[in-house]
Design brief:
6 strands, globular, DNA polymerase, domain 1, alpha/beta, Rossmann fold, 2 domains, six-stranded parallel beta sheet, 263 residues, binds magnesium ion, single chain
Amino acid sequence: MASDNPFENAEAVLFDLDDTLMRSTYADTLAIHCSIDALRQHQNIEKDDEDLRGMIRYIKKGLNRPSPDSYLFNELLEKLGIGDLSLATRMGIVYRDVVVATMRLYADAIPFLREMYSIGVRTGLVSNGEEFIQREKIIRSEILDYFNTIHVSGMKDDSMKKPYTMIFDRALEALEVSPDEAIYIGDRLDTDILGANKAGLFSIRILREDGRYNDETEENVFKNANWEQEYPNIEIKSKDELKPKMEINSLKELMPYFASIEN
Ligand SMILES: [Mg+2]
């Protein structure tokens, strides 16, 4: 019996946040739509919505500020040749309000975290992103107390981000567990799965019904990712390093494995 359960020795479960526990992309996409609507109410712009969304995503990627909303839209307006700080701020407010109003945990998140707590499996969050933004999401969704440890990469030091192993190592150290006693659940192959595999954790890819990266495969990520630019010095020799140990659609699928564990 014991050998049938890959989690027999599991002491800890670590999670990605966005699109793993929380419907972040959905909220972000909706918020960007609404802020573009706010822009159109105040300005005639020749570009179509898709172009504008592309520009916003591009600027967003390059921003390293704690609360980027108004900065983000100000940079967009500058690119469009519009100098209007009030409009940028207005768009920032719309974006923020919509994100806050629509960001939700997936329905299985709290039941699963509760189950881990009740059977004595320790939990950790390992997230790439800006410290305060990620913590705001955790606090607003009232899951702070479900984690034994929280590790957010911050934006300053790339070596702290997934797929580099340092952030996983620190989380394991804080939980006092070894990599082979830990599971990592995330939605992205090039950050979550690659990083967890490199750090020696049992990697689980979660494919949510609205998952942003569901179409990605080990083959196309290995081939198409801009490794040098996105993750300098990462060593990746084969697509197999991007392969999760398990794929799930919902955290519920893991419950039966854990139900049989005595900790
Ligand atoms: Mg994610």
